[in-house]
Amino acid sequence: MDIHPILEEWLDHWVWPTPFKGPGVDFRMRITKERCIPMWNRIVIRALEGAKANEESYNSGDYSVALGGYSAEGPRMSMNQMSTQLLSVPIAQQEEYLDLLRMRARQLWDEVKHGSLHGDVLIRGGHVDAENDLMDEARANFGGSRGYFGLTATFPLIHPLARAAQNYHTEAGACLGIRCSLEVNSHPLSIHENLSQHYEEMMHFIEGKYQMDMFCLTPEDQRPVEEALDFLLWPPFIESRGVIPED
Amino acid sequence: MPTLRIDHDKCTECRMCLLACEEIGINAVYMELEPRHRFEIDVHKCTYPTCVVCIMYCPAPGSIVEDETGRSLVPPPPDLWRDRPKKWLRDAILVPKER
């Protein structure tokens, strides 16, 4: 498999660097090479194609693609996703999982901001005059795929290390997708809606990397990650997110 | 010895450096008692370049720098991870946490 240069650079910057060695690091490296990279490579190729189409759309004054972002990344998804993470960990154990309350609060703040950024693109682009007008747009109020945000948007309770797997695998895809958009798109409104999201997705990806390196030390700890990847790489789930799997 | 500082123009205040530093028992990253409660690095506790854990888990490019040279350490330059021997995780943790 030829690894795309964008992915190659990203791996060198964010995936391979570790501060120590250990079973968690070895485990993460194995699943990265065997399970994640083939899909990440597909995501990059598809994201570059999508970014080109998006640039053409924005240059022609059609900002409707931001409607999907507005519906998907707003408060509803955030509450769904963040409450799953909080519900999945007993209060006494929450401190063990990355300062859960504060990081989830930060994530909620970011996700709501993303919805606002997409809304801002739609207003600045002239698609609507005010955010209230989006109430009349079905595409701004309907998330087409329940599984779009993965396990935490689909199941009310998941193991915290399954969440780490989702952070690692899915948010890597988000980071790479945004990276591709920023590489291809020069339209100021496209950069406007993508740049701040990039920081938030990076935070989640690194959170997953850290949890696997630090906590996936035994086969028992590693099982939730493998099972989460079984779901995230399950062909019907991948197809629902628009990335066609390689046979 | 070189020391680290946080570039607040680049830092997104995600807390990863604080959490990672705390997890291995060094506790050099702290929240400053000023109105914005920004994160800072206590150079008297930080063991950089022996420990580079905050650098490896920082997601915001350019937000941790080597104070003396101004060199950005995020994303981690190869000399900090590719070209140096690494300790085992168990040897890096000073105060193991019960899980």
Would you mind describing this structure in some detail?
The complex is a heterodimer of chains A (about 250) and B (about 100). Chain A is mainly alpha-helical. Chain A has ten helices and no strands. In chain A, helix 3 runs antiparallel to helix 5, helix 7 packs antiparallel against helix 8 and helix 7 (about 160-185) crosses helix 9 (about 220-230). Helices cover about 70% and strands about 0% of the residues of chain A. Chain B is α+β, with helices and mostly antiparallel strands. Helix content of chain B is about 15%, strand content about 10%. In chain B, the strands form two sheets. In chain B, strands 1-4 form a two-stranded antiparallel sheet. In chain B, a hairpin with a 7-residue loop joins strand 2 and strand 3. Chains A and B meet through helix 1, helix 2, helix 5 and helix 8 of A and helix 1, helix 2 and helix 3 of B.
Quick gist of this model?
The complex is a heterodimer of chains A (247) and B (99). Chain A has 247 residues and is mainly α. Chain A has helices at residues 5-15, 23-59, 65-72, 75-87, 100-124, 151-154, 160-184, 188-215, 219-232, 235-240.
List how many beta strands of chain A DSSP finds. Answer: 0
What form of chain A results from the Cα inertia axes? globular
Identify the overall geometry of chain B: globular
Oligomer: heterodimer
Task: Report the radius of gyration of chain B as a whole number of Å.
Answer: 13 Å
Helix content of chain A: 55-70%
Largest interface: A-B, 32 and 33 residues
Q: State the share of residues found in helices of chain B, binned by percent.
A: 10-25%
Neighbour order of strands in the largest sheet of chain B: 1-4
DSSP helical segment count of chain A: 10
**Helices and strands of chain A: which structural class?**
mainly alpha
Distance between the termini of chain B: 34 Å
Mean pLDDT of chain B: 89
H/E series of chain A: HHHHHHHHHH
Structural class by helix and strand composition of chain B: alpha+beta
DSSP strand (E) fraction of chain B? 5-15%
User: What's the β-strand tally of chain B?
Assistant: 4
Treating each run of at least 4 consecutive H or I residues as one helix, how many helices of chain B?
3
